[in-house]
Amino acid sequence: xxxxxxxxxxxxxxxxxxxxxxxxxxxxxAAAPDNFGGHKAKAMDDLxxxxxxxxxxxxxxxxxxxxxxxxxxx
Length: 74
Description:
Structural class: mainly alpha
Strand content: under 5%
Shape: elongated
Largest sheet: none
Helix content: over 70%
């Protein structure tokens, strides 16, 4: 069977859930009313990196480059 983005997401729903919850956390931080001494920006950057790493883990068998991974969603 050929591997697809959809198939990998269906096979690993916990990773998809972790990505979505991390994206929710990123949005909550973005809406926070203060910069918290620069820690908010650092936390947001860390979350963006974590989200990308989770997407790389989710799609590793597809051998996608970073741009394709980010464009794939999830």
